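User: Quick one: structure for sequence A, then sequence B.

Assistant: Sequence A:
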Amino acid sequence: MDHLKNTIKQNEFKKICLCTVILLTVINIIYFNSLYSSFHFDDSASIVGNYNLKDINYFYQLFTDVRTILSNRPIVQLSFLLNYQFSHLNVFGYHLFNITIHCLAVITFFYVTRYLVLFSKAPLFGNGRRNGHGYLFPFIASLIFGIHPIFTESVVYISSRSSIIVALFVLLTFYSLIKAQLLQNKSIPVIAAIIFFFSGMSTKINFVVFPALFLLYLFCFHWDYLKGKITEYRRMLSWFFFAFLFIMLYRLISYGTGLLVLGPVDKQWTPYQYLITELNVILFYYLKKIIFPVVLSIDPLFPPSSSIISLSSISLFIILGILLFAFRTRNVFPLFFLGIFWFFITISPSSSIIPLLDFVSEHRLYLPGLGIIIAIIPLVNKYNRKCMYVLLVILLFSTLSIQRNFDWQNSYNIWSDAAATSPKKARPHFNLAKYYEKNKMYGKAIVEYKKAAKLSPTVYFPYIGIGMVYLQLKNLELAEKNFAIAHKMRPKEFEPRSKLAQVYFKKRDFEKVEKILGPKKKIPKDQAGTFYMLGRMYSIQNKTGAALEHFHKAVRANPDFVESYVGMGIIYGKQGKPEMSEKYFLKSIEVLSNNPGAYYNLGFLYLVQKKYEDAIEKFKKVLEYDPKMHEAKVAIGDIYFELKEYDEAFNYFKKVINEKEYRNEMIYKSGLCKLATGGLNMADEYYSNFNLDQKSDCDLYLRIGKLFEHNGNEDLAMKYYEIAQKLDSERIQIDYH
């Protein structure tokens, strides 16, 4: 008998391992083409522009600052921090992390679902172990979870990883508490459950639903156990409830505008309007897309409802009917009951009375979607003879997911797809325009910005976009016109003011810049670019104190703002403070090691200090990163000439001699090198090789003539004076006496 039990356990272990390997293999195949997808949308603020990620000390703040712990998703921030420390802004590491968490969630779901199937007392399942239901249907459910196209947004869109992580902690806490029920030694799973619970609370506010989910599970499968525990621990549970409520209220207050005030860009929805619209969203978008996951979008358009006496009333009755049917059949189809209520409980944080920015977001379905998958397990079992249909569904979902991953590969794909599926929504056109602008496709950018402006006439962002395009095209008048429209629409907003100031700065109309952004005008502390612009303005006006003040404000707002360090270095150099100047030039190089401008300024500083070797080193570094920066070549040539290394100087002057703006100067200086090494005749021979026949060349011949005259050879001097006169006889007159 013991031998038979061991054999059964071994077979179970082999089946679990086989299921796990298949699930991991299929998921990685499905998401392989997403590993190099670009950053999108919120990724700019969450990752690319999140300067906290560059400081490892941010790790301690995440878990020592109470406000951060309670309101700032520290687990998600920690994941971004670790990603940045290992791979900086290489998207591969971020996507690999998302896929790994998704794999862990799928495997945990497999284990949880296996127990749910085995706990089910419904006659539909019979003896789960004997009939193989303890593996087959959890495996099918987990496979569908792993490959379902509706979950691609959560997996591929890096900033949506919070949905995956919170779902993983829900499942891990669930699994740990189930194990605590089954094992005699409960300490390890209980400790694990506590760790997972608080990790989930530190991930996303959606984790608030977990207690309701676990009570639902106990009600479904362990009602007698639930009643006994509530009676036994009612005092402790009441304290837990109040502590839990306090944390949720604190987070609600901390998020503030994030949960209570945010509405669509051009309108704020009341809780009533949001709720009645969400009734339709749940039924006609979320449930529909889980069952038929086609025509997905990062930014779906869903019409708002204004009254319950509309389609919303039908949706409400259908939803109540589904819930009532699930409740009435809970003894026959316990998993259907559990799955349906799981869905509605987990969707409630984003689809209730708290208005969010958008009515619909597909990443919100990651955790609720598991409920629908759990609910269909009985249906799969009922029609288990028609496994071919299940196989076809799996193949179809796999194909759709792979195709959807291609849509996420770059900003053009995802926003052109969104603009096609939601042509009457402004934001897809706006973000598509941003893509065109970034890639210098300015005509297409303006077209898309204008579409966005037409679709959302009370929003000023499209006019800012159009203005920025014209600013890059150096059409300051049209740029000013569009920024002025934006400023008129939202006179209290800072962005339109700052953009207008940019135009005035480029026009050198500093009086208007002062009027818009002067000392009495409040500038947000995070506006590094604006502070830098003001620093440049004051620097041009030689108001060094005000310039330094604003450069310092710029680096406080953005410690990686290289141009501000360079600006401070230049000002300190003008003030005769070479140590401070060197400090800030070196700081700019520390922030951006391949910054040729910083190396040039540092080289020039060393040149002034006559630290020639250091100057040459920095100028050569300039050419390493920007071979076309000819000023560095000229500077190196000048240093070598000063050091009397004339051959080296000649070589650097020759590198620039064909550049129009340096041509005459380099001819003259390279001739000086020949004069220094071979005397007057060699210099004459060298200069004679240039057939110069433009009026602009006559000044060069005058300089050459004066050079020979200064060196005592009047014949050679006269030769070049005559050539100069021939080129410009009206201006050049020679006195032969």
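Sequence B:
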Amino acid sequence: MDLLNELLQNPEEWYRQHQFLAWAIGFIFSGCGLAIIAALFKKGKGTAHQTTSGDNSPNFRNIQGNIHAAQTRGDHSPNFHKVREVHIGGVPPHIVDRLVQELDDKLKAKNIALAEHDKIIEDWVKKYEELEERLAQRSETEELIKQAKEELTNGNLDEAEKLLLQSFQANLEYVKKAAADAYELGTIQKLKIEYQGARKYYEQAAHFDPDNSLYLNEYGFILHTLGQHKQAIDYFEQALDSDLKTYGHQHPKVATYWNNLGEVWRALGEYQKAIEYYEKALVSDLQTYGDQHPNVATYWNNLGEAWRALGDYQKAIEYYEQALASDLKTYGDQHPSVSRDWNNLGLAWYSLGEYQKAIEYYEKALVSDLQTYGDQHPNVAIYWNNLGLAWYSLGEYRKAIEYYEKALASDLKTYGDQHPQIAIYWNNLGEVWRALGDYRKAIEYYEKALDSDLRTYGDQHPNVARDWNNLGLAWYSLGEYQKAIEYYEKALASDLKTYGNQHPSIATRWNNLGLAWYSLGDYGKAIEYFEKAYGVFKKVLGDDHPHTKLVKDNLDSVQK
């Protein structure tokens, strides 16, 4: 299943951009103002940690399949349109209310988390206003566009789309007009939450007018949304080159494209490359806005995420603290951006093994969002989950279960039992029961998570690979090494299709296969897998990363 369905059914997956490490902040749309879309798409609803576990052998260690420690960027109450007025240009208020209600119903029907609705709707409103403005500019000279604008103002997206399609077909010989029509049609599809349709029209817009940075950027963004990251890079680079020629290096649009490129490279696991682009964006917007602007806090947060992915947790903390200081001045201490920053600091201190310190930050985030949302909100469930992870790491397994079960109970009420977030908690409960030595109970929870994720994503998705890996770990712990290998190989095959062979998740699978073959007495095969894993971790994460050191220890032990 492609990443469109991941987006529609589990925005946290885009928010963190796949497994292994977390993502926090997403794209800033060109042409949409400061629309920070991380809430819907990468990075920070559900952060997946790959942590190490030494519970399988005195000398060898598996790498666990992602206990989820999630982070959020939601900042509204579940009934957004009832608690805050929404205005769209010249669209009458009663029509806006109907449109937002329809959008809200559609988001709920697609299992998009309540915590994400605000940012989704904010972006949706901006795109609606942008489309209305573009049509208004063209309506004086083009009758079909004038009619489409009237339909849009009346909230009739389908009718506006039909008229735009007529205009597009009539303008095929006039490439600039055809490109504009295609872009407008893409925006209509986006407003209808039909991202494959948006992709088709944005591609046509970029084809007809290949020097238009707006079209190039939108097409790149939708490609990234659909998981086609390398293609997205090509179009973001074209948009960047165009606007560098137009504006030079010190312009917000140019900073936007640098940030977007950083996001895509981070999604591909190229963290150093991501850092280069984030730093360019940061330098540009520091000169434009100074250090007390939300864009700047966004880039600091993104840099923190990238350095955390590289295992430099102290550097990550430095950036997170700068983001926190800025957001505190901008928003005060009762704002979701601030609770996100506290949570990110908790994640970084957790990675340093400072679990008590992590708990302090998680509790701050929890208290803030409890006051903002109450105790039946996905953000709150996420912080309970993170606290569970921290107590798990302190060996307080019963306390961990208590927090995981709170998170599970809350989100069961929010989503029901067929939602990806529920699979996260089942996975985590499986982890803690495995730590308690109840491997059969762990398998029960892992199988629940697997069944749910297979229904949600199909068999070619990182969450499913994680579930297979965890089942392998549990069967390994029961001494069923051949069964463990079967699950590890399923996880490996899935992740190879998703990431290629130079990604940390692949190295994780190879390490675990090496350990299983070692346990079966096939040392040659074990060495082969450990060497593969070590090569990838060393290349991607460097010699000093904990995972690189772990696999090197495994390799050295088997070679003695």
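The two ends are 44 Å apart (CA to CA). The longest strand covers residues 48-49.

User: Thanks, that's what I needed.
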